[in-house]
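Appendix B. Extra example for self-study. Work through it before the problem class; the solution is given directly after the inputs so you can check yourself.
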Amino acid sequence: MACAVGLTCCNDGWLDKKPDQKIAMLNSLSDLQALLDNNSIMNSNTPYLGELSSPYFYLESGALARLQSHDRNAYLWKTDVFEGYDPIIDWDWNFRKIFYTNVVLEEARRFDDGSVDYRNVMASAFFLRAWANFQLVQVFCPAYSEETAETALGLPLKISPVIDDVPDRSTLADSYGHIVADLRSCLNFEINYRDPIKARPSVAAAYALLAKTFLLMGDYSQALENARHALEITESRLIDYNAVDLEANFPFELFNEEVIFQASISPVSALRPSRLLVDTVFYNSYGRDDLRKKAYYFHNTGGIAYKGSYCGSDDFFSGISVNELYLIASECYIRLGELEKGKEMLRALLDKRLKTDDAQIDSLTDAADLLGYVLTQRQKELVFRGILWGDLKRLNREPEFARTLIRGDGTDIYELPPNDKRYVMPLPDKVVRLSGLVQNER
Amino acid sequence: MNAIIYKFLLLSTFLIPCTAVSQQTISGVVSARETRRPIAEVTFRNIDNEIVAVSGKDGAFEIKHPIKADSVLLSHVAFRSKWMLLSSRDSNHIYLDAKENELEEVQISTGYFMVPKDRATGSFASVSERQLNQTAGTDIISRLEGITSGLNFDRRTAGQSYDLRLRIRGLSTIDAEQDPLIILDNFPFHGSIESINPNDVASVTVLKDAAASSIWGARAGNGVIVINTKRGKIQQPFNVSISATSKFIEKPNLGYNPYFMPSASFIDVEEMLFARDFYNNNDVYKRPLTPIVEKLFELQQQLIDGSAYDAFKASLQNNDIRNEVNRYLHQTGYEQQYFVSLSGGSERMTNLVSFGYDRNMGNTRRDDFSRATVSVKNTYRITPYLELLTNLNYFHSRTRDAGIAYGDLVPQGKMAVYPYAALVDGSGNAAAIAKNHRLDYAGQAESLGLLNWEYRPLDEMGRTRSQQLRPEYRINIGLNVRPIKDVSVALMYEEQGQHTELETIYEADAYFARNEVNRFTQTDGNRIIPMGGIRQGSSTKGASRFARVNASYEASFAAVHDVSIVAGWEISQRKETNLPGSILYGFDRDLGIGQTMLDYTVRHPTLPFGNALVSQPPAYYNERYDRYLSYYFNGGYLFRGKYNLSVSARKDMSNLFGVNQNQKGVPLWSVGVAWNVAREGFFDAALVSGLRLRATYGSSGNVDKSSTAFTTANYYTSSLTGLNYAQIITPPNPNLRWEKVNTTNLGLDFGIWDNRWQGSVEWYAKSGVDLMGFTELDPTGGFLENYRVNYANLKTHGVDVSLNGAVIDRGFKWNVMLLASWVKDRITNYTDEPRPQTMVGASTAALLDRPRYALYSYPWHGLDADTGDPLVKVNEELSTDYVAFNSGLSIPDMVYHGPAMPTFFGNFRNRFSYRQFAVSINLGWKTGFYYRSPSISYGELFNSWRGHRDFDKRWQKPGDEQFTDVPSMPTGNFSYLRDVIYLGSEALVQRGDHIRIHDMLLEYTVDDGRKWSWLQHARIFVHAKNLGILWRSNPDGIDPDVPFSAIPPQLHLSFGIQLTL
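Solution. Structure tokens for the complete assembly:
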């Protein structure tokens, strides 16, 4: 027996046996694809801090007391949010996405054969890097404006997979430019098919994300153009809420027809339907005919709770969906003066959301009124999707839409005036300590 | 180095003394009277105190010099010296009597070769069978405590013996594998420690320094424990050994639990929080609330009146869950151990067969453990030149867990159960407690068409049964060939196999099964999970194979040169397999049916709210391989029986992943010298009966197989998409290197007054280079897992002292044994400055010039006189601005207390015997370290129901700050920092110094044929362990050895009998 064992080892390969079968080296494009398919990293944990700071819901004082300090501070717009707390998942998990994409972009060079698989992997990695930076920039940087973009602090733009190499913060213009450049790189790989797996990036998703980015930048014509591309690819499919079981626990399915790219907000305990009570004024702003009133909300014993996630569960959907494209297109048309086209887009959407035809939209002729109307519909449609915090920030730049937020904790009243420094979350203390990145002023 | 050895050898050839041509020769064999075993290393001195002979391994001696007077003094470390007259016969049979003294002379076993202790240069601690018998217990490792020097049992993490870590001479590595290597009968052992029956063990040797352990190569950096089991002996008459032991383990002392808070205080807190609207009456998930909070809601909604509430409260106020757990769930543990061994030997062969059976009833009712061990060992001396050794061992254990432990009562998402929980209601029936849902929700389930959803702990006993079966085997075959004189070649092969099978059955009425069925019941009454029980199964397999070719050469030249050389080649493989598990729903054991045909991909709505996937059987499958290919060499040279030189070297190659070929192996070596001063005749042999100086230096290594130089990933299957996905496990680390530990050891062994007192003093220094550890990364880099790098050097030095002696040695005997160890370590060459917040956790970050495990704290400035808030210093001003304090904190602000592991520890045993009776008391001490005492965390109390007895000592009114450091109960929303700053503060750091009665033994021994000729040996004993702490420097009543444990070490009381026929 000893001899038998002895013989087997005389092959040089005997010591090359992998110590753990599950360990894989990155030896092929499919290994890289598998990194990008890591759903728990790529398709979840979009930021929750902005959502928690949004004004469409409130927490009862008891629920507030049960929150962890940093979540409570975010809710109450405190100056110091984290108080040294660690880890900050909004930052960490989105930079984790960036790390994965950088590993893929670096390793993929070895397999550059021009094949569809190669282009797919490259395009996906660029999209996902843009996706993570797009999420981060809304939470940790101020709103984009042409005047300040060159001076305001942006994100540290990580483009290498080296884990201890952390670049300094770029300017806001560079950060947005980086997102746009990554999306253009993604589209340059000319991947034309639509991936049936909605957890994976697709061409439509790339156009849609470009539209979302340009909307935040205030570049409405580019936003419109990209939204239209995306709508074209997705054939403008909408769910008709008239056909949805409004009484169901969760009326919408995961990966439903409207979803272009699946993502969800970090499932932190602060953001659970049983804690969040929907602001009653906001809830009552949905008309009697508005199917969303029943599809999105239910009466819980303490108040109104949310159930309308496109995840089909109590995770909050934060991915990209067709309805958002309608709203982007409509808003951009109106802002660019093409009121009828704007109305048409909005009408098409509301057609699937209301029991009857929308009478109000026909009565509006003034551009400003129409813009106001589409923005209200945007709130009603895209609430609890990690989108409205970015909207609040961008709309604060326009005096007619700027608003002061008010919130209480049972004893004190807190205010958040437009364009306040507290619209920008602080960087995690750990990051400032370990890498010396410049902290946001709050 | 080679040149030096060469010169030494060359020189020595000139020193061979001329011997007389014709001399009178006296020869014979020395053996022990009791065991008839030959004794090596017995020195024979003439009346001029000159050594005239030293017995060999087989006990043989030969005296060639003419002896002027015929009498010689025979002396030996472990045996009584005696003067004898020797005749010039060939076959002197001399018997020596063993000393009562406990340090028996042993052959030191390294797992590769045996060497008499007198010839070893390195640092070994040997533990004999007799010393092992001084304690009782199921596993061999725990028996080493208190009888082995330099070995610290580190229990900081928990109070459980299985969580303990062994530290041989402190730390040599930072975060890579820290446990010592265990060698069982020549080969590394990978099975469970329980599979070694302590009754089978003949001796244990702990290899402490590089010279001792470098022979084991890469895995020896943390020390090596060599265990040898008994074998039959050539020409030994057939004998039978029988032993039986019963052990009682006292019920856990729940009263000790520092985290417990009296019901009355707990209710006060709940009322206060209720008044602040802390509780949610609208929770869609129906998460559990305590009965008091439920009643307060009823009161608020005017469903009951104030007097009803007060009556309810009064009925709970004096409840104490600890009494109920003690009464209904716990029992006195009872362990039985039986062992029979049959052995014998003829001229041609030896046999040993042993059987062991153990049955342990744990402290939790209905939990038990049983084990059976069988071992068959034969030696066949086929010809004088050829010997075959076989060793078959089989072990089977079964662990059953059907009881309810305290931890099972803790509701989902909480850390403790409410203190007034009752297990029995007023009429003596099992009571329900809030487990996953609110009591009323669970109570009304049946009326809604669901299964009963209540959790009644006492009814649950026996409904959930998990059973772990663990068969293990070990087969070992060896062939010893002596082709020519002095040379021996051994071929050895060993196979070890372990299989662990875990099965958990939830009966249909078990809470777990009811909860799963109910949770997935749809609003239309449709059940996604079929009614019935649930069975979960999983298993793992392990298999190891070893093969070794070992050649040894041992010879004496001209009576003054002794050379021994061992060299060999070894190959080993360890394979571990995780097999996919199974889940059967709707399980009915009687009919043997169950279902697996469920849809695991669809999210179903769940009750009371939400949706979920049905738990699918674990699809995990994995194989792990650990392969080593090694070459080793060990050479010893002894000149004139006085001067020793030893050299040892080894090269290990392993299947390290993701490194370059040349990094797969590392050469390790050691050299040692020793000088037997006593044999020089400088001293009066009767006074200084032994004196040896030793020194070694060597290098050993440590390897962390989980780190690689390239990016690696693990594969999983996504439950969201069903696609395979990869998770990055290691980022590229091209600078990965092996850890190296260089050890210097200086030792002095002595014996005085005819070895009535003997001992040793050893000084050592270990220098760890390129040690691997976790480094804190900026998360912006995107790698959030622990990241290991070669990042620091660690220097450890210490002294081990052992002393054995007979204070009184007459009819009444008083023997003492003292083991004392000093150990200090210090991080050198470490560049990271950790964040101060990482220094107050359960494990602290490393810091330059500090011990690896050290205790730091936040400075303490007392409590605010008006509010009872802890005070902090911000910009030199006392304040309660915790946020500013926290963000301004830097490492120099932290208070450094000292090491977190004992720096001076040991044992002191006194043994008193008179005739057949003996009593021994073993005291143990650990000093020179600090620990952090737990205290009240208001965040945990409010949200997780875990309190602390310090709550009652909290600041309550101005003036209290004079007497207490416990902060007031916070009002309103408070920052988590308020808790953190108090819990991490100076105020809670204590010195851990303590002395405990480690164990006591009372025994009665009968040796050979006094009254009954058929009885060779009999022993009856009573042994008690964990008798309590005699003295401690900390005032808080915490056992500093287990500072985080909720219960103190339990008293073990054993009764046993051993017979050899």
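Self-check: Residues 1-11 of chain A have pLDDT under 50 and may be disordered. If your reasoning did not lead you there, revisit section 3.
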